[in-house]
Amino acid sequence: MEFDGLSVDQAPPISAPIRFFVTAPLFAILAGILILFSDATVLASRYSIETIVITHAITIGFLSFVMFGALFQMLPVLAGVKISKVDIISKVSYAFMLIGTFSMIFGLWLNISKLILFSSLLLGGGFLTVIVSMLIAFRSVVNVTASVRAMITSLIFAFIIVLMGMHLLASYGIGKFSDLHGLFANIHSVWAIFGFAGVLIIGVAFHVLPMFYVAPRFKRFCKQRVVWLITSGLLLWLFLNIFIESYSTIAKIWVAMFFWAFSTTVYLKLNARRRKVSDVTVWYWRSAAIFMTLGTFSWAINDYFDAKYIVIVSILIGGGFIFSIMSGMLYKIVPFLVWFHLNAKGYMSIPTMNGMINKKLATAQFILFIVSLVGFIISFFVPSILPVFAITFISSMVILEYNIVVPILIYVKTIKTKPDFDMSMFTMKVEK
Amino acid sequence: MSTIKEYLTQDHGKCDELFANMEDAAAKSIESAKEAYGDFARETERHFQMEERVMFLEFEQKTGMTQGPTAIMRHEHAQMRNLIAEMGKAIEAKDKDKFFGNSETLMILMQQHNMKEEQMLYTMAQQHLSAESDRIVDMMKSMIVQ
Fold this sequence. Notes:
The structure holds two protein chains of two kinds. By secondary structure, chain A is mainly α. Chain A contains 14 helices and no strands. Chain A has one domain: Cytochrome c oxidase-like, subunit I domain (Cytochrome C Oxidase, Chain A, Up-down Bundle). Chain A has helices at 15-36, 40-43, 49-79, 86-109, 113-137, 146-174, 181-212, 220-243, 248-271, 280-301, 310-344, 353-356, 359-381, 386-417. Chain B is mostly helical. In chain B, helix 3 runs antiparallel to helix 4 (96-128). The longest helix of chain B has 33 residues, at 96-128.
């Protein structure tokens, strides 16, 4: 019986998710550099080109790279399904998304219309390839759990926002904007944050929190209904936005209420967890819950201030909530994948997960990240201090990249040098 | 009576509780974690054997799939047994860092393993073995650990 790689048969090759993870912080560093060289007053407007570019360097370059990388890994585990030709799908979508994101950033920043149109095609091609492959994989799921339903729902939202994003980007490429451009941009951003990222995070949290932290399980009602309630809220928000815009705040409060309830639940569950060990991932979950609580309320009441504070809302939700959770997840998933794949190949003398991450550097990275977020919010009111926090953000992302690269180098070095190759562990009691 | 899926899923929860007790004890003092480690290691080994010696065999016999999901799960059991043994050595050596390094790795490995079993293998087992569910659960309950 051949054991080499057996336990990873079901999982994709390590390169499928890792290539996305290792690239994500590089886009965040680029976003930090662009913030550093931008006029802070221009960034206070959500419709300025600079804001759009920096936002997408973060949302596409960092957040979606981490989310899709993680989905490649999580589908076989959480849903028990296999993406067909996963290696090719990962390589193709990665190449398209990588070149597409760079083209979008530089095309918009330097106003090169052909590059913008090219990026629209590449990003659409990359995202749709991976989204459709994953949705097809879900057709063979045997056990439809709350997490599976949430993942499917979030991918459907992703499909729609990608199509809208392609249209919006192409509008910049040809320099013509339809009357519905503003409405499309709103739907694109709200559904991306709450429908795609928010629902995906909630669905994964149903599993991850009780299992990894031995926290109390989510209530049945929560697992069965919350994704449906958020989806209906987002559809209601769409309807009101198109037909009775003045009432759209009702739907916003509806959606915000469930995300606030989720954030509070996460915080309480972490307090009640049986596993008291605390590390950077727990801090990230906690900070995400706090920022999301502030973010949902700010978003719901932002209309009463003529949407003046939408940039602050984006920092609280995009940075404080989604970015935090993605960063925390990287600290668990990257060292685990390295350990898991090396161990499955028969290498025994390898560091444990804790041995691959320098705790002090991880703490420094977390603190710098939180300081940057708070600093970005303060900079909205005091623009002159923005460069300071651009630098703390860049520093935080450089450390994050280093913390991800170290385990990967351990993997590469082990494969190259083959320090030991001990299969004796597998001489276990196997009855036939 | 519980179904195969319910019974083994509850048993995962029991092992998780014992794991948390063990880490609590080790956080206070590595020397005092010996008993809690023993409880966790014993119950986890019992769980592995309930699967390997009873449920997996029944599943393989019924479906003819001997190189499928059960082989993958057996392989991961071996990986976990190795980490549990390393944790025992760390307690003997009073090496707290080594203990927590292994326990963190074990926790993630164990949980992704449990997710795969609960999501896929137990569901498949329940579908194929529903008629014999009571008998198989009885056999697992009365099994003597080797």
